Amino acid sequence: MISKRRMHMLETALRILAGLVGLFFLVLGIGFLTLPEVLATGFFVEPARAVGINAIRGDFGALFLGMSFFCLLGAVTIHRRLLVVPIVFLTLVVTGRLTGLLVDDLPVVVADSIVIEFSFLIILVLAVVTFSAKKDPVKADLTVKAFFSSRILLGFAVLVLIVAGIFMSQKKIGMALVNVIARQFAQLDVVGDLPDGLHVGLCGSGAPLTDAKRVCPCLFVIAGKSLYVVDTGPGSTRKLELMKLQPGNIKAVLLTHFHSDHIGELGELMLKRWAGGSRQDPLEVFGPPGVETVVRGFNLAYSLDSGYRVAHHGPRTVPPSGAGGVAKPFDFAAGKEAVVIIDADGLKVTAFRVDHRPVAPAVGYRFDYEGRSLVISGDTLPSESLRRQAAGVDLLMHEALQPTVVRTLSRLNQASGRANIANITEDILSYHTFPEEAARIAAAAGAQHLLLYHVIPPLPVSILNKTFMGDAKKFFNGPITIGVDGLLFSMPAGNKKILKKWLL
Ligand SMILES: [Zn+2]
Ligand SMILES: [Zn+2]
Is 45 helix (H, G, I), strand (E, B) or coil? Predict the structure, then answer.
């Protein structure tokens, strides 16, 4: 039999431990409320865009703050039974974790979380039991019994059975889902669902530095029912398809210049358009002089593959005439900074010079359709011709590089002995535009909305967005959006609205 004094010491110690558990949950809860993406990384959770961040902020924040509330209240006041609330949650958490260990092919690292959560559970249970035992041993016995009452155990057993039933039926559930998903994909047609107007989506909003949220540059433009793609950066074809666009419907590709981050996936896109759409015509690829070399190269590299496809699927499914691409070079007349390259079905596309030296020529594009307009900068320093061409535009999509952060990265690379990376990082400062400069251009052009894309450096968590933006908002009164893959801007014909939508 434990002496009264010892029981008191034990009870106090467990009460302090329960309070510490509450404080730990409090820190986590506040962390999830204020820095959800950072905390989520520690919990191996990856949010899907802003909605995911919001769910983590709300749900995880509420779980930890709620448990903290009852832990602290139970530890500080005499109402130790309030600890039953976090005990119930922790029991379910540990049950879920253990179930996952059996079915999820998990790395050992999860075992740490289980040990920690199980320890918390034991502390809280003991805190309740010792408190009751100190007060009244008979009551304590009842409290222990209450935890293991037949109704609670029965409820738990039912829960285990339901979960086990679902796991046993995984194959069948998966098969049912295949049907649902396949039907959804067959019915989806983003182009057909949009109202008449000018729409632009980001199938690549990043640059060569790897960014989990952004692949290399790629934008698709929908004017009425016509689909165009501007630049085909590595990784972008997959993004385009994930955004429910059919490569088979692409009318033409427009290249801004021939850096690899803008052309790397031209071959894949040509193949997908041809095979996916049974196209009989090769893909038209517009660009300044040099586009012939790029298209010829991709055609050659894919020539063996297209032969295999025809041999395997037959010419009716993949007509040989539709394989690859055809270059549509354009040039500027002497002294001119712009040239109209497409004028059809109410759409006018103007190519204009930008300054991305030593890359020359490099161009940007302006799209005009039914009174709505869009300018895409391509890669450039602040450019006068771009400012002129962007006059009165609805949406200016301008490349942007954050110089302070890039300089810091360069210094860090230098310090860690990666001199070549440090030099490249330093060099890129000389042929891109800073967010503040893009904002000044948007203001001077009288743009309605500024979107920053070709984002350098990577922004893995959105709390970095403000750092990236710098003082840009001081120079432009309209809205500024930092581009991220999956975003779609819609500009319906006949009004001035610019609507944002997520396709990923
Ligand atoms: Zn470039
Ligand atoms: Zn680039």
Answer: coil
Mean pLDDT, the chain, rounded, equals: 89
Query: What pLDDT is recorded for position 276?
Result: 87
- Please tell me the distance between residue 357's alpha carbon and the centre of ligand 1 in angstroms: 9
Q: Looking at residue 499, what is its pLDDT?
A: 94
pLDDT at 107: 65
CA 115 – ligand 1 centroid, Å:
50
Question: What's the CA gap between 167 and 77, in Å, rounded?
Answer: 42
Residues in contact with 108: Cβ distance below 8 Å, sequence separation at least 6, in sequence order: none
Which of 128, 126, 117, 55 is CA-nearest to residue 92? 117
The tokens for 368 are 């005009």
Concerning whether 261 is annotated as a catalytic residue, the answer is: yes
Buried b (16+ CB within 10 A) or exposed e, 146-166: eeeeeeeeeeeeeeeeeeeee
Closest CA to 205 of 428, 500, 452, 470: 452
pTM of this structure: 0.83
**Distance separating alpha carbons of residues 211 and 388, to the nearest angstrom:** 32
Ligand 1 center from residue 257 Cα (angstroms):
7
Give the position of tokens 């998966």.
174
Q: Is the bond leading into 358 cis (omega within 30 degrees of zero)?
A: yes
Q: pLDDT at position 5, please? A: 79
Residues less than 5 Å from ion ligand 1, measured at CB: 259, 379
The number of the ligand nearest the C-alpha atom of 233 reads 2
Q: State the ligand closest to the CA atom of 358.
A: 1
Tell me the CA–centroid distance for residue 217 and ligand 2, in Å: 7
pLDDT digits (tens, 9 = 90+) for 396-446: 999 999 999 888 888 898 888 888 888 888 888 889 999 999 999 999 999
Distances 210 to 226, 419, 457, 469 between C-alpha atoms, Å: 31, 19, 9, 19
Active-site option among 261, 368, 394, 485: 261
Nearest ligand for residue 264 CA: 2
What is the per-residue pLDDT for 173? 83
pLDDT at 41 over 70: yes
Pairing type for strands 395-401 and 449-456 reads parallel
> In angstroms, what is the span from residue 481 Cα to ligand 1's centroid?
21
Q: Tell how far the Cα of 379 is from the centroid of ligand 1, in angstroms.
A: 5
pLDDT of residue 37: 85
Measured from the alpha carbon of residue 261, the closest ligand is 2
Q: What does the pLDDT look like over 444-466, one tens digit per residue?
A: 999 999 999 999 999 988 888 99
In the chain, the amino acid numbered 137 is P
